[in-house]
Design a protein that fits this description.
Elements lengths: L14 E5 L4 H12 L3 E6 L2 H15 L4 E5 L5 H15 L4 E4 L14 H29 L3 E7 L10 H21 L5 E7 L5 H9 L7 H11 L10 H12 L10 E4 L8
Parallel strand pairs: 1-2, 1-4, 2-3, 4-5, 5-6, 6-7
The structure holds NADPH dihydro-nicotinamide-adenine-dinucleotide phosphate.
NADPH dihydro-nicotinamide-adenine-dinucleotide phosphate binds next to helix 1, strand 2, strand 5 and helix 6.
Length: 270
C-alpha cells in the first residue's frame, strides 16, 4: 500500500488558547496542539517562565504559530487585552483551555477566611474571566470548544486540600451549566479530572522536602504507592494533554458537559 495514512485531530490552523501554558500540563497541551497543526497562544504571570516556554514552542512549530502573553487570568483588563491580541494575531480563537492555577494544601482547621476567598476566587475566576473574554471568538470561529483542567478532588475530596476540593466541585457544576447555556451557540464545554500529574507544582512540593535526599523518581513512586494509584505512578503532563486535545477537537463533537478522568485509576467512583 503506498502513502502512509496520517491520523488528524482536525484542529489544523485553528487558533487555540491555553491559559497557564508556560509549565506542566498547560505547556504539554500547547505542544500537542501545535503538533496537531493548531496555532497556539499561551499566558502566564512569570515573564522568564513564559519566554522559555515560547522559545521551546517556537522551536517546534515556528515563531509565527506561537504567541506568549504575560497575563494574570484573575485580572479582567489583562485577560481582555490578551483576547484582543490573540484575535488580531491569529483570528478568532476556536479552542480555550482553562488550565491556569494551582492547588492549596490546607485542612479546615488551618484555612483562614482570606485563604478561602483566595482559593474560591482563583478556581472560579480563572474559568469565568477567560471564558467571558473569549466566548465571542469561540462563537465566531464555529465549532468552538472550551476545556477546563479540573481535579479529581471535585468528586473525591481530600481533607488536607479542603478549599481546593470544594472549589473544584463548584467547577464541575459550572461546566455543566456552561455546556447547556453555550450549546445553542455551538460551543462545547468539557473538562479533564486530573489525579496526580508530574508538573511544576509537584516539583515545588518535592523541592520543599528535598533535604530528605530522596530522588524525584523514588519520591513520586512512593507518592503513588501511598495514594494507592492502581497504575503505580504519577501521570505525565502529555497524558493529560492528550485527553484535553481530544475534548478540544472535533473528534469529541458530540460530547459536552462531560469529563475524562486522567487519574491512573485513582478514582473510586463507578
Ligand atoms: P504548573 O505549576 O506546572 O503550571 C501552572 C501554570 O499556570 C503555570 O504556567 C503558571 O504560570 C500558570 N498560572 C498560575 N496561576 C496563574 C494566573 N493567576 N494567571 C495566569 N497563569 C497562571 O502546574 P500544573 O501543570 O500541575 O497545573 C495546571 C492545572 O492543573 C492547574 O489548574 C492545577 O490546579 C490543575 N491540577 C493539577 C494537578 C496535578 O497533579 N498536576 C492535579 C489536579 C489539578 P505562572 O505561575 O508564571 O503564572
Amino acid at each position: 500500500m503506498s502513502g502512509a495514512r496520517r491520523f488528524s485531530l482536525g484542529v489544523e490552523d485553528r487558533a487555540a488558547v491555553v491559559t497557564g501554558g508556560s509549565s506542566g500540563i498547560g505547556l504539554a497541551t500547547a505542544r500537542v496542539l501545535l503538533a496537531a497543526g493548531a496555532r497556539v497562544a499561551i499566558c502566564g504571570r512569570d515573564r522568564a517562565r513564559l519566554d522559555a516556554a515560547v522559545g521551546e514552542l517556537a522551536a517546534i512549530a515556528g515563531a509565527d504559530r506561537v504567541l506568549g502573553t504575560r497575563c494574570d487570568v484573575l485580572d479582567e483588563k489583562a485577560v481582555g487585552a490578551f483576547a484582543r491580541e490573540v484575535e488580531s494575531r491569529f483570528g478568532p480563537a476556536g479552542i480555550l483551555v482553562n488550565n491556569a492555577g494551582q492547588g492549596r494544601v490546607s485542612t479546615f482547621a488551618d484555612t483562614t477566611d482570606e485563604a478561602w476567598r483566595e482559593e474560591l476566587e482563583l478556581k472560579f475566576f480563572s474559568v469565568i474571566r477567560p471564558t467571558r473574554a473569549f466566548l465571542p471568538q469561540l462563537e465566531r470561529a464555529g465549532g468552538g470548544a472550551i476545556v477546563c483542567v479540573n481535579s479529581l478532588l471535585a468528586r473525591q475530596p481530600e481533607p488536607h486540600m479542603v478549599a481546593t476540593s470544594a472549589a473544584r466541585a463548584g467547577i464541575l457544576n459550572l461546566v455543566r451549566s456552561l455546556a447547556t447555556e453555550f450549546a445553542p451557540q455551538g460551543v462545547r464545554v468539557n473538562m479533564v479530572l486530573i489525579g496526580l500529574v508530574e508538573s511544576g507544582q509537584w516539583r515545588r512540593r518535592y523541592d520543599a522536602q528535598a533535604a530528605s535526599g530522596e530522588s524525584w523518581d523514588a519520591w513520586t513512586r512512593r507518592l503513588a504507592r501511598d495514594k494507592h494509584i492502581p497504575l503505580g505512578r504519577l501521570g505525565r503532563p502529555e497524558e493529560a494533554a492528550h485527553a484535553i486535545a481530544f475534548l478540544a477537537s472535533p473528534l469529541a463533537s458530540y460530547t459536552t458537559g462531560s469529563f475524562i478522568d486522567v487519574s491512573g485509576g485513582h478514582s473510586r467512583h463507578v
